[in-house]
Amino acid sequence: MDIVECVRRSAAKKILVLPHAAKQMLRPDRMITMEEVRRVA
Asked: In which domain of life is the source organism classified (predicted)?
């Protein structure tokens, strides 16, 4: 896969974080970062 295709695929992964999800991500026992979310999306 060339770099242009990589950029297109990355741009297509728009992630919407709703308030409930953000609250759950920020719980002290979880602390999930957006980078972690992007890695598994």
From this structure: Bacteria
